[in-house]
Amino acid sequence: MARSEPMGPPRAGDGLRLAFVVAEFHASIAEEMLRLAQERAKASGFVAGPVVRVAGAFDTPLPAEWLLEQDDVDAVVVLGAIVRGETAHDEVIAHATAATLQSLALEYDKPVGFAITGPGMTLDQAKARVDAGARAVDAVLRVVEAWQALQG
């Protein structure tokens, strides 16, 4: 099949399936993060995987685990925004979620991109950081490249 553009050099993500978990508590922010992350994933050669939406950041580890258990998912990117409230609740949620997602990456030996912004942010600061999803795809790509380099 002929391509309309040159293929260029192989990309590290070529053929790897990337799934997403989206915390929708701040839905407009999360959806923009997802859009930018999916664009970056496509540009990096990843194959689109499932998108799972949950209520908030605290809810993301379990569906991330379900995705990591699937043989046809090579990596997961988790997206969302945690905005500062009147208590330290945002800090508790952010730290617990980050630690759990990192543990899942180690348990399943698959990259987990962390694009949950916060804690301590205002809503305007969260809106200004929607590129975190694309940066999390970049981080997954770097882990994949490191793994590929170690393979020889």
Write the topology of this structure:
Layout: E1 17-23, H1 27-43, E2 47-54, H2 61-69, E3 75-83, H3 89-108, E4 112-121, H4 123-127, H5 132-150
Parallel strand pairs: 1-2, 1-3, 3-4
Summarize the structure.
Strand 3 (75-83), helix 3 (89-108) and strand 4 (112-121) form a beta-alpha-beta unit.
Distance between the termini: 31 Å
Number of helices: 5
**Mean of pLDDT:** 91
Level-1 CATH class name? Alpha Beta
Strand arrangement within the widest β-sheet reads 2-1-3-4
Total discrete domains = 1
Shape: globular
List the helices and strands in order: EHEHEHEHH
Rg value: 16 Å
Helix content: 40-55%
* CATH structural architecture: 3-Layer(aba) Sandwich
Question: Which runs of at least 5 residues are low in confidence (pLDDT < 50)?
Answer: 1-10
CATH superfamily: Lumazine/riboflavin synthase
Major β-sheet annotation? 4 strands, parallel
Strand content: 15-25%
CATH fold label: Rossmann fold
The helix/strand class is: alpha/beta
Report the strand count. Answer: 4
Explain this structure.
With about 150 residues, the protein is α/β, with parallel strands linked by helices. It has one domain (about 15-70, about 80-150): Rossmann fold, CATH 3.40.50. The protein is built from five helices and four strands, in the order βαβαβαβαα. It has helices at about 25-45, 60-70, 90-110, 125, 130-150; strands at about 15-25, 45-55, 75-85, 110-120. A four-stranded parallel β-sheet has the order 2-1-3-4, with helices on both faces. Strand 3 (about 75-85), helix 3 (about 90-110) and strand 4 (about 110-120) form a beta-alpha-beta unit. The radius of gyration is 16 Å and the shape is globular. The chain starts with 16 loop residues before the first strand and ends with a helix.
